[in-house]
Design brief:
By secondary structure, the protein is α/β, with parallel strands linked by helices. It is built from 10 helices and 16 strands.
Length: 334
C-alpha cells in the first residue's frame, strides 16, 4: 500500500477566485473554560471568548485565514447579530447578510480543562419571515461579484422550507457556480436532488441518509460511490480522527491526518471544507484538495473552543497528511 507522493513545500498559495457561503442559521458562540465542571455547584470560568458561529461562516473564516477571497451570505438579526458582524469585520471577512427582525441565536460552549471535554448548549434559530426569505433569495440570484463556488452549510431556521438548499443549488448551477453542500437530515436529502457539485457529510450523516450502517472502510467507499452515482461530482465523507474518504467517480481517495492533541473538535468540518474548496479553486487534483482539507481540519482541533485553525498549523501539518488512492479492494499509487 503506497502513499501518494507528498508535496515538497507546505505553502498554501492563494486562491484568486471568490467563494461565497450561505449560513441560514448563524450564531454568536460564547466559549467559557472551567478547571473542572461540577454539576449542582458553582463553576467559575477561567477564560471567556466570543466568536462568530455557524457552519458557512466558519468556512468563510477559515478560507480567509488560508489566503482566499470570500463573501458570506445569510440571515443576521438583533444585538447578537451585530456582534457577529463586528467580529467578522475584525477578521476582515466580508459579509452581505440580510437583516431580520428576530435575534440571532447565541450558543454556549463549556470546556472542562481537566478532562478536555466540551458541553454545548445550542439555541434554536430565530424565525424568518417570508419577506426576509425573499430578500435573501433575491440576493443569491443576483450574487455580485459572482463566485466560483457557493458553499451552503448547517441547519435551517424556522420559517425556511426544507428544500431551500436545493433551490440555491439550482440557482448556482444556472449561474455556472459550483455548489457545495454540508448539511444533514432532510436538508441534505432534499439538496441532493438538485445535484450539487460537492457534498461533505460525515459518516453518521451519510449512514442516516442512506439508512444503513457504515462499519468498515469498504462500506464508506460504497456509500461515497452511491452518492456520486446520484449526480454529485465530488463526494467527501469525513471520518473524524481517521480523516476522510472521497471520490470523483474516477478515483477513490483516502486521506488520514497525523496524530494531534485534540483540544476542541468545533469547526473541524468547516475547516476541512475550506481547505478542499481552496485547492479546487486553484485547479488542483482531488488528491491535493483532500490533503489540504485534512490538514485544515486537523489544525482546527489544536485550538480551544471555537477559534478554528491557525494558518501556521495548517502549513506545518500539510506535508504530514497521508493520502492514498484506493479502488475497490485495490490500491494504486499516483
Amino acid at each position: 500500500m503506497s502513499a501518494i507522493r507528498r508535496r515538497s513545500r507546505a505553502d498554501l498559495g492563494c486562491a484568486g477566485e471568490l467563494i461565497s457561503t450561505i449560513t441560514l442559521n448563524p450564531a454568536l458562540d460564547n466559549t467559557v473554560a472551567v478547571r473542572r465542571l461540577v454539576v449542582e455547584d458553582v463553576n467559575r470560568w477561567t477564560s471567556f471568548r466570543r466568536d462568530p458561529g455557524g457552519k458557512g461562516i466558519g468556512v468563510s473564516r477559515v478560507f480567509h485565514k488560508l489566503g482566499g477571497h470570500t463573501l458570506a451570505y445569510g440571515f443576521i438579526g438583533g444585538h447578537a447579530g451585530r456582534v457577529v458582524e463586528t467580529l467578522l469585520a475584525r477578521e476582515k471577512v466580508n459579509c452581505a447578510f440580510v437583516h431580520i427582525r428576530h435575534e440571532t441565536r447565541t450558543n454556549i460552549i463549556v470546556t472542562d480543562l481537566e478532562t478536555n471535554q466540551q458541553t454545548r448548549l445550542d439555541a434554536p434559530g430565530p424565525r424568518v419571515s417570508p419577506r426576509e426569505l425573499e430578500a435573501l433569495r433575491r440576493r443569491i440570484r443576483r450574487m455580485s461579484p459572482r463566485p466560483s463556488f457557493l458553499v451552503m452549510s448547517g441547519s435551517v431556521p424556522p420559517g425556511v422550507p426544507d428544500d431551500i438548499y436545493a433551490e440555491f443549488i439550482r440557482v448556482a448551477r444556472g449561474m455556472g457556480v459550483k455548489a457545495v453542500l454540508d448539511s444533514d437530515g432532510v436538508w441534505l436529502q432534499e439538496g441532493l436532488r438538485a445535484k450539487p457539485y460537492m457534498v461533505k457529510p460525515n459518516v453518521h450523516e451519510t449512514a442516516r441518509l442512506l439508512g444503513t450502517d457504515l462499519e468498515t472502510e469498504d462500506d464508506i467507499v460504497a456509500a461515497a460511490l452511491e452518492l456520486h452515482g446520484r449526480g454529485v461530482a465530488i463526494v467527501v465523507i469525513s471520518r473524524g480522527r481517521d480523516g476522510l474518504v472521497a471520490t470523483d467517480g474516477l478515483r477513490v481517495v483516502r486521506a488520514a491526518p497525523p496524530p494531534v492533541n485534540v483540544r476542541s473538535s468545533v469547526g473541524a468540518g468547516d475547516a476541512m471544507v475550506a481547505g478542499l474548496v481552496l485547492r479546487l479553486c486553484q485547479g488542483a487534483s482531488l488528491v491535493e484538495a483532500c490533503r489540504l482539507g485534512v490538514a485544515a481540519g486537523s489544525a482546527a482541533v489544536l485550538t480551544p473552543g471555537t477559534q478554528l485553525c491557525r494558518r501556521r498549523d495548517v502549513e506545518r501539518l500539510l506535508p504530514l497528511v497521508r493520502v492514498e488512492e484506493i479502488r475497490q479492494h485495490c490500491d494504486r499509487t499516483v
